[in-house]
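User: Hey, my collaborator sent me this sequence without any context and asked if I could get a structure. I don't really work with proteins. Can you help?
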Amino acid sequence: MIRYFTLLLFIGLAFWSCEDDGNDGEPVNGCTDVDATNYNSDATIDDGSCEYGSASVLGNVTNVSYTQGEETAHMFFTLSNNSSLTAYNVRYRLKISYKCLSNSGSQSWSNDLLALGTVPFPIEPGEVVEVDAYVNRCSGLGIDEFTFEIYELIWD
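Assistant: No problem. I've predicted the 3D structure and written it out in structure-token form, which is a compact way to encode the shape of the chain:
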């Protein structure tokens, strides 16, 4: 009788001590990468569904410098990463607008999109990078007026 009672007690404890994980031992598909925004701690098989956030880079024009009658204009701006993720391979395109001097006064405005510029290093979360660039325009005449804007920002 004591053997029978001991055996029942042992079997009962074995059943009660097993924790139910809700999947009855079946594999659970999902994202197993803890760095993903949709990480599933119950997943046992990575099904390729992991999703990752994106950095957020903003540009801000800070200054433009040129001397009327000269051919070179300097452009100053900042790029800031306002996210919690690092921005890699940051590229920017500037749009410039300018008037050249002429013998008969100022010419009409001209607009150009410049080739992509590249920040040669990653921009970390919360980091602000100061960038300066220059361009030559109005060959032989000189610049009368000049302005620019950050036309496009791209990053990985």
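In plain terms: Residues 2-17 form the longest helix (16 residues). You can pass these tokens on to your collaborator as they are.
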